[in-house]
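Shift notes (night). Ran Proteasome subunit beta while the centrifuge was going.
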Amino acid sequence: RSNGDLMRNGFRPPQAVRTGTSIVGIIYGDGVILGADTRATEGPIVSDKNCSKIHRLQEHIYCCGAGTAADTEQMTLMTSAEMDLHELNTGRQVPVICASMLLRQTLFRYQGHISAALVMGGVDKYGPHINCIYPCGSIDKIPYAAMGSGTLAAMAVLENGWHPQIELEEGKQLVRKAISAGVFNDLGSGSNIDLCVITKRGATPLRTETIASERGELLNLYAFQPNTTLVKSVSVQDIEITEERVYRPSRAN
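Came back to this:
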């Protein structure tokens, strides 16, 4: 009733803002590689060129977030705190499926109103895992995943290059290539590429590991005097007048 009264009095709720991101995760051997670009946008504006989109849940579990930056960060911070309490209560390492359940239950409870699309990767005693978690709470358990506005370009690269016997260096190169495909085919993705390699021994975050879209260099210094215009070229052409007509305005009586 309150919302209806506000609408009748002329209040207009804020519209959804389109966000852009390219996040990727793959399984290699006995580990996981996560990748993300570092551009944060506010509609048509690039608000942050070096945003961190790979969040720590546990030492052996990390998560890439796409969607609204505040939603993804708060979701991962809250889940990380719950997993810390779970580890203290049980005295053992939290399995990846537990982190997946915590995230899915919260997202499903809000029925998609939390704009957080997540690619979670981790390695526990059961092996490496990649979980693709959607804002509505559904999940895909697949060996490679891509989410965000650069999904189509990144997934095309992953489907072409991933294979079960992929090694670490080849996997890192594949993730770089997939994120770069999203960067160069999506206006909402850009700047640098972050990687995170997770094994049984822990995680190795590689912050701004690759620069995807470098800023071009000026070829010359452009300095103009105020109130002047630079003339690049002058062209004079002969015009042949074939007919001339003169029109004079008529005077009103």
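The chain has a mean pLDDT of 89. The CA atoms of residues 237 and 243 lie 18 Å apart.
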